[in-house]
Every structure is written in C-alpha cells, then in structure tokens.
Specification:
Layout lengths: L1 H5 L15 H18 L6 H17 L11 H4 L11 H4 L2 E6 L5 E4 L2 E4 L8 E6 L3 E6 L2 E7 L8 E2 L20
Antiparallel strand pairs: 1-4, 2-3, 4-5, 5-6, 6-7
C-alpha cells in the first residue's frame, strides 16, 4: 500500500458520522460555499468546471488576501520542506510492465517504439509507466525514456552510441525520474 511506503497511518472514520470527518467535511463546505455557488450556472461541461476550479484555486492561494494571514495570500507564506523525501512519489504512482528487447534494440509499449542500448538485445527489461512517459529499466538503471504525449519528442537512450557497455561491480551513475 502506498500509504505504508510513505509512513502514513490511515485513520478510518465511522460511516454516517460527519462529526468524525470534520476537516474534510469543512473543506467540502468551503468549496461548495465559495466556489460552486458562483460557478454552478457559469459552466456548461465538466471540462469547463475543472478549468474554473483550477483558476479559483490559483486565485485563492496566490491573490486572495486572508485576514488570518494578515492580509497575505497562503502562497506568500508557504515554505517547502527542507527534508528530503525518502521515496520517489512518481515511481510509487507508476505501473511496471516486462518487455523483451527486439533484435533491433527496440521495446514496444502501446504501439510506441523506444530505442534502447544494443547490448540489451534479447534481454527482458522493465517499463515504468507514468502519466506522461515510460522509462526502460535494466538491472536497476534507467536506460531509456520515451514520452507518452503527442509523440513529437524524441526518445532518449543511455548510454549514448559508442559508450562502453556497463560491467557488473563498476560504479555507475543512476538516472532517476
């Protein structure tokens, strides 16, 4: 479970007891009162609603002055954590598929081809698929990357042509997302 990997303990509320879900219920009330009451009659589709909500969130966090914050918007006081994240969230939210590298040093995913280093021909590799790309992994190292967007970006393969084949036990630079 992702929560376990992140060190988060799930706390379950009793069904049909809104008082045990105070913070989330208060958030829902706030969005209904301050956003939906105004946007309800101004949008004609779910896409328009999502765009309007994204704009409202941006306005609320970056422009709207808050009395409890001495007239400043929340973004003015936000500070990123100085602690390093122990986990790569992006990799936790990805899906892995096993593929065999073809004789042409290609792996395929959903009618897309991705060039990989020639020394992997015949080997099985892992594809780590996220919302916008897939990364080819072999022996714990990222060896190629391919976008899943409109397909206009070129795939990237490591190592570059002519680079020596990695040898076991030799320190290597690992490429992360």
């Amino acid at each position: 479970m992702v929560l376990d990997l992140l060190g988060i303990r799930a706390v379950y509320a009793r069904p049909y007891r809104p008082q045990t879900k105070g913070k989330i219920e208060k958030s829902f009330q706030f969005v209904q009162r301050d956003f939906l009451s105004e946007a309800r009659f101004k949008v004609n589709s779910l896409n328009e609603l999502n765009e309007a909500f994204a704009e409202w969130v941006r306005w609320y966090n970056h422009e709207h002055s808050h009395a409890s914050l001495r007239g400043k918007p929340p973004a003015a006081l936000y500070r990123t954590s100085e602690r390093d994240s122990p986990l790569q969230i992006r990799s936790l939210c990805s899906v892995c598929h096993r593929r065999k590298v073809t004789r042409e040093a290609i792996v395929r995913y959903r009618n897309r081809k991705c060039k990989v280093p020639a020394h992997l021909i015949g080997d099985h590799v892992w594809l780590r698929v996220t919302e916008d790309e897939f990364v080819v992994e072999s022996q714990g190292f990222n060896v190629a990357r391919h976008p899943l967007g409109d397909g206009h970006q070129a795939a990237t393969a490591w190592p570059r042509p002519g680079a020596p084949r990695p040898t076991p036990g030799q320190p290597q630079q690992q490429h992360h997302l």
